[in-house]
Design brief:
With about 120 residues, this protein is mostly helical. The protein has helices at about 5, 20-30, 35-40, 55-65, 75-85, 100-105, 115-120; strands spanning about 50, 95-100, 110-115. The chain has a single domain (about 15-120), classed as Helicase, Ruva Protein, domain 3, CATH 1.10.8.60. The protein is about 50% helix and about 10% strand. The protein has a three-stranded mixed sheet. Helix 2 crosses helix 4. The longest helix has 15 residues, at about 75-85.
Length: about 120
């Protein structure tokens, strides 16, 4: 059969909906995952970015609730990280930023670990 003819044949494909576990894997496992991209963006400021496992699950739940699947993960992450990335350079002595479930739900601020915290211990 010629490629022109084969290209005109209809193709039907069925896809299974992504579950929470699959969406969390998409957020974390690929070499250039969203989590790793944001961690790289924080490196120049000397801040280690950590996502609580429950926070990642909540991001996946939001994507499932909005029925956006993996394509919606970037928009949700941008929404979570927008204020943090704007405010963090003004914070003093922050060495680690921990994103919690409450931070994802915009019910609380992320946890900032400061350098002077370790000196006082």
């Amino acid at each position: 059969m010629t490629p022109e003819f084969v290209g005109r044949l209809p193709v039907f494909v069925t896809l299974d909906e992504l579950d929470e576990k699959a969406l969390v894997r998409i957020l974390t496992e690929p070499r250039n995952s969203l989590v790793k991209q944001y961690q790289k963006l924080m490196e120049p400021d000397g801040v280690e970015l950590v996502f609580d496992p429950e926070a990642l699950r909540e991001i996946a739940r939001i994507a499932m609730h909005k029925n956006t699947g993996a394509r919606g993960l970037r928009a949700i992450m941008e929404n979570v990280m927008e204020d943090i990335m704007f405010d963090l350079p003004d914070e003093k002595n922050v060495t680690k930023c921990i994103i919690t479930k409450d931070a994802v739900l915009d019910e609380d601020q992320p946890v900032y670990v400061r350098e002077d915290y370790f000196r006082s211990a």
